[in-house]
Design goal:
Blueprint (H helix, E strand, L loop, with lengths): L5 E5 L6 E6 L3 H20 L2 H17 L1 H12 L3 H24 L6 E2 L5 E9 L2 E5 L7 H4 L2 H7 L2 E5 L8 H10 L6 E3 L4 H10 L2 E5 L2 H14 L3 E4 L4 E5 L5 H13 L9 E7 H16 L19 H16 L3 E4 L4 E3 L1 E3 L3 E4 L6 H4 L6 E7 L2 H9 L3 E2 L1 E5 L3 H8 L6 E4 L16 E2 L2 E2 L13 E9 L12
Helix pairs in contact: 1-8, 2-4, 2-6, 2-7, 3-4, 4-6, 10-11
Bound molecules: nicotinamide-adenine-dinucleotide (NAD).
């Protein structure tokens, strides 16, 4: 794959190409990798506390540039409110790792084994160079969410943000330099070919993106015999059971389906509601949708930003056309709106069936198809009837029923009486099921173990081992 030397950057609010950025040449990526590796040896020798102080310094440097980060992210993504949350959430995540990492990777004390004269000691050895490849929907957060714990663990990092949303890169480089991290953390710019070059130079990969690209990344990593942590797409279901608090469920599902213009991996993209409460729930959801407005012309007024990636517009349009052609009805929204950029008004679809594209493929827009089901068993079977398995939500006022249903859903994070909580809570461990991904938990304390290899020190404290050959 070859790439042009400049990326053309499109503003999703206006649809205009209004900036360019130079693509990092492949030979420069190889040189950068060599220098990151050279610096990593010293970095790993520092105490974890010293490395975490640098992470705190990075958080400070980003905080000092908060307004500038928000400005460039607004230019790339077109949304205001989520950008504030993204910048603040990223800074908070870095500080959390700076505080937690020392306990997560403390070497164990010498441990007496069952064999009386053998002790063991557990140590952790960082991979020299982590490669991060990230998508456009939360450009800053998804570039740093893996990089921060990896730096704490003692890795160097080379990161390639999405070619759709790289405007934050110069600002982050500045913050890294101020924090004294530029020797161990480099950012490169480009599309797929640049991502491939990152895989070629790295010792382990954290990829966030689509299933189709994840498959290519997984294959490339397998060829190189390096681990790949793949965080991929979703088609998250919400189950509204007959004893749910309906207003509460409608509010939570509207937020989880429509926030960030539906462009989150853990957006709710399918709703299954039990028949006795279906009419009430659908009316409440439509009322929620009707109360939301496009954040146009003022990005600070209204809740729904534009479709960020130009390539996604055709995907959403095709799914809406297909749904309509097969008999679905939009109770609200249903047609894309042009304001220079393209916008999807909050859309509630009924009369949908499982064959429609909107029920099978990731939509990544403000579209909520609602299916009425006879009972809990049907809701669970339909919710699990997908190749994805990222996360899900269950609404019921019975704690026993919530547990029973949640434990049958095929996904790594099940929100109960809320939705998309995995986007807000980063401390509970979760893994992706089915085509939604592969690898260890990105959340919680286990996350950091993805960046180290376990090395056991096995110590004979003095005796001759009885399994040896006889002394001569
Ligand atoms: P994408 O797969 O198109 O691109 C992701 C990244 O991969 C980009 O940086 C891109 O340049 C790079 N890339 C493309 N081809 C490559 C190749 N051959 N080798 C290496 N890198 C390559 O995804 P996208 O459209 O940017 O992002 C949206 C997708 O991300 C959605 O499917 C969404 O669900 C998913 N996502 C998942 C999570 C999660 O945590 N599971 C979080 C956010 C987004």
């Amino acid at each position: 794959m070859t790439e042009t030397s400049q990326l053309a950057l499109r503003n999703p609010r206006t649809g205009e190409i209004d900036a360019q950025m130079p693509v990092t040449p492949v030979d420069a990526i190889h040189r950068l990798a060599a220098s990151l590796r050279a610096a990593q040896a010293d970095w790993a020798r520092q105490t974890i506390e010293a490395r975490c102080q640098r992470l705190d310094a990075l958080a400070d440097a980003m905080q000092a540039r908060r307004a500038a980060f928000c400005k460039v992210l607004l230019a790339d993504t077109g949304r205001w409110h989520e950008t504030q949350i993204e910048v603040d959430g990223t800074i908070a995540a870095i500080r959390r790792w700076a505080a937690q990492a020392p306990q997560c990777l403390a070497d164990d004390e010498p441990r007496q084994e069952a064999i009386p004269f053998i002790q063991t000691r557990q140590t952790w050895v960082p991979y020299p160079l982590l490669g991060v490849i990230s998508p456009w929907n939360f450009p800053l957060m998804l570039t740093l969410i893996d990089a921060a714990p990896a730096l704490a663990a003692g890795c160097s990092v080379i990161a390639k943000p999405s070619e759709v949303t790289p405007r934050f890169v110069p600002l982050l480089r500045e913050a890294l330099a101020e924090a004294g991290l530029e020797q161990v953390f480099a950012l490169v710019i480009g599309a797929g070919a640049t991502g491939q070059a990152v895989i070629e130079v790295s010792d382990t990969i954290c990829f966030t993106g689509s299933v189709a690209t994840g498959r290519k990344v997984g294959e490339a990593c397998t060829r190189r015999f390096i681990p790949a942590s793949l965080e991929l797409g979703g088609k998250d279901p919400a189950l509204v059971l007959s004893d749910a608090d309906i207003e509460h469920a409608a509010r939570a599902i509207a937020w989880a389906g429509f926030v960030n213009g539906g462009q989150s991996c853990m957006s709710i993209e399918r709703v299954y509601v039990e028949a006795p409460v279906a009419d009430r729930f659908i009316a409440a959801l439509v009322a929620q949708a009707n109360a939301l407005q496009l954040a146009w012309p003022d990005p600070q007024q209204g809740q729904i930003g534009p479709i960020i990636a130009a390539s996604q517009i055709a995907v959403v349009r095709r799914q809406l056309d297909d749904a309509r052609a097969r008999g679905a009805r939009a109770l609200t929204g249903g047609e894309l709106v042009e304001h220079g950029g393209t916008w999807c008004p909050p859309t509630v679809l009924v009369d949908v069936d499982e064959d429609m594209l909107v029920m099978r493929e990731e939509t990544f827009a403000t579209v909520l198809p609602v299916v009425v089901v006879a009972d809990e068993a049907e809701a669970i079977a339909r919710a699990n009837g997908t190749e994805f398995g990222l996360s899900a939500a269950v609404f019921t006022q019975s704690p026993e029923r919530a547990q029973r249903v949640a434990r049958q859903l095929e996904g790594g994070g099940i929100s109960i009486n809320d939705a998309s909580l995995t986007g807000m809570v980063q401390t509970a461990e979760k893994q992706s099921f089915k085509f939604s991904g592969m690898g260890g938990s990105r959340m919680g304390k286990a996350s950091i173990r993805r960046f180290v290899r376990a090395r056991a020190l096995l110590i004979n404290t003095g005796a001759a081992s009885p399994w040896w050959f006889p002394a001569v």
